[in-house]
Write a structure and sequence with these properties.
Oligomer: single chain
Structural class: alpha+beta
Shape: globular
Distance between the termini: 13 Å
Number of helices: 6
CATH architecture of one domain: 3-Layer(aba) Sandwich
Strand order of the largest sheet: 1-2-3-4-5-6-8-7
Largest sheet: 8 strands, mixed
CATH topology of one domain: Aminopeptidase
Radius of gyration: 16 Å
Strand content: 25-35%
Helix content: 25-40%
Number of strands: 8
CATH superfamily of one domain: Gcn5-related N-acetyltransferase (GNAT)
Amino acid sequence: MFYVSIPVSYLCLKAIFSCMTIAIDNNLELQLTNQLQAKALFFAIAGNRGHLSAFLPWVSQMQTISDFRNYISSSEVLIAEGKEVSFAISYDEKIVGRIGLHHLNMMNKNGSIGYWLIKEAEGKGIITKCCKALISYGFNELQLQRIEIKAAVNNVRSQAIPVKLNFTREGVLRQAELVNNEFLDLVLYSLLRSEWKG
């Protein structure tokens, strides 16, 4: 894996992230969010709308490649501001999803992992491996103290990831996310740096 071993501050986050790729194994890598991914990510969404829209509120807004370019532009701004670090997931040289550390709060040293994956890439351990890499990066390089994962109460597959990675289930955030005109309850999981075995 490629990691940058220098102290992190608001001013150096952009420089650190600007050239980052994390190689997880021979078939799997994380590529920092950039405009070159827009077309591949759009078609990944377009071919998996039914699968993804059940729990992701923004899927219906991605109707064109231009929509995804705008979405990526917003992500690049957040990366430059040190508020997130997000990646496209590349498996066998094909983009199959996204993952990121979002809502980074460097004062309180915490962040939240979010992810999605196309249907055909499920069941291969991809998200678990990507989460491990991102957790290590968050704790070891960004010096975070706490990382959260939230998943809808009915999204059993997504909840399996933090359970497998020994996150603590803290409780349920009632009606915390609006998806398809319905407010969903979210299960909140957390992991502290002292609990991470690497």
